[in-house]
Design a protein that fits this description.
With 399 residues, this protein is an alpha+beta fold. Helix content is 27%, strand content 34%. The longest helix is centred in the N-terminal third of the chain and has 34 residues. It is elongated.
Amino acid sequence: MQNLYRSKLLGTIGILTVALLVTGCNKPKSGGPPPSGLPEVGIVVVKPEKVSLTTELSGRTVSQLVAEVRPQVGGIIQKRMFTEGSDVKAGQILYQIDPATYQAVFASAKASEARAEANLIAVRLKAGRYQDLVKINAVSQQDNDDAQAALKQSEADLALTRAAVETARINLAFTRVTAPISGRIGRSTVTDGALVTASQSAALATIQQLDSMYVDVTQSTADLLKLKQNLANGIMKNGGSAQAPVKLLLEDGSQYPLTGMLKFSEVTVDQSTGSVTLRALFPNPKHSLLPGMFVRAILEEGINEKAILIPQRGVSRNAKGDAIVMVVGSEDKAEPRQIKVVRTVGDSWLVSEGLKAGDRVILEGLQKARPGTPVKAVPFGSAPAAPPAGAPQTAPAKK
């Protein structure tokens, strides 16, 4: 009885074992990679293009004409004859200095001139008579020579007195301090009753012409030499105009509506900063530009006929700091490429070496594009391809 029970138990265990083995063989394998296509990357094809290169330099505005008003004679200011901050014309009287002393000097000089003229008449008549008498030996040659010398001395005395009269007249005119140029005058540093001296160091007022304004900016000599080298090598070309146009950005970031012209570049390098000064001239009809304003000038350096521009998002740096891009090679495999960048142009890098026309630079999907892996290149910004039929769909995230 026991042997029969043991036989049935062993048979049951064997049947279960076989069933489990069959079930394990029929179970699909898990953990293998699901079938999928090549990773897609967004690429841009390198196409050389014509680019106008500019540089932005900071500087300040300077009046085209500036005149500091100083007295040329000393005295007491009787009256200020202008309104501070107003526009004045050249020759307009600005200050009146007490002229009493200078009028007296002028009158004395005129009297000396009249006396010299009267004395000259008598001496001239005497010299004329002696010149006739010496011919008939009525007077000696010595007396005639003395008369002729006295005539010349009297003529010199008259010329001297006339010069003194002119000096006195000029000094008397200088008591009226006039505007040397037309423009806008600033504040007055003196008031009525103040004592001023001739050619003093402190200006009475300053006149500035605002109809046009200079903008002085500085550029490093390194950038200037690089620009000349690019022009010499043919990488860049001049814009074709003798005077390059210049645009202006104001302190608040707004753009000045009128375009200026680059006038000249300084021929001497500032030894303390290693830079040169560039000067541009801007029209200022509304007087919106004032002297001393901080501005940024945008100057056109030249034109690159075959510039290669790559968006900044496609450029990275290696451990050495070299610029690197990922490109799709001839076998549709991702490969790194070391490049040299010169500068930024908008949101792109200007590339000088490492890329040529037709290269496919990866801008999107860089995390999928490992070096040496096959990729599927699609134009950057295009819609992603639909997943293959039968592929598992990703459920949308629950909000």
